[in-house]
Design goal:
Layout lengths: L2 H21 L5 H21 L1 H22 L2 H7 L12 H5 L5 E4 L6 E6 L2 E7 L9 E8 L2 E6 L3
Parallel strand pairs: 3-5
Antiparallel strand pairs: 1-2, 1-4, 2-3, 4-5
Helix pairs in contact: 1-2, 1-3, 2-3
Length: 156
């Protein structure tokens, strides 16, 4: 096999590795094919051109592959590909400000065990103590932890 054919195999193998790393993550056909082409090019270099030239081809393949992958994985390359947006939202503190332990309300939806409730004019997501609570039943707030409202039914 000629030196030009070996160089073409190496370049195609490195291209397939880039496709694997940047476009199709995971172990896919592109990565496997790139690995086979690189190994095959080095093998044909040793077989066709001899040991000294095979060493040069192996060294050149390793250096070129490392340099191309390192360049592709630099931060600037990824900045061009990644989504560049910021999140300006914040966690709502409605539960601790407007609803207190002991407040009473009514279920808007069935709680099994999560659902919507109406307490002090506020629609909230609430969790029952484990029992199902039907829609339009009176409830009482048991606890508020980390913006999670836990309620129990009021027996009438």
């Amino acid at each position: 096999m000629s030196l030009a054919a070996i160089i073409i195999l190496i370049l195609i193998g490195i291209f397939l590795f880039l496709v694997e790393f940047l476009l199709v993550p995971g172990v896919t056909i592109a990565g496997i094919a790139g690995f086979i082409l690189l190994v095959g090019a080095v093998y044909f270099g040793y077989d066709s051109l001899g040991t000294p030239e095979g060493h040069y081809i192996l060294l050149g393949t390793v250096v070129l592959s490392t340099a191309v992958i390192a360049y592709a994985l630099r931060a600037r390359t990824w900045k061009r590909l990644m989504l560049d947006s910021t999140i300006s939202g914040k966690v709502s503190t409605y539960a601790e400000e407007k609803v207190k332990v002991g407040d009473e309300g009514v279920t808007v939806t069935r709680l099994n065990p999560m659902g919507k409730v109406l307490i002090n004019g506020e629609y909230l997501e609430a969790k029952s103590t484990g029992a199902y609570i039907e829609q339009k039943k009176k409830i009482r707030v048991l606890s508020i932890r980390d913006y999670r409202v836990t309620v129990e039914p009021i027996e009438t």
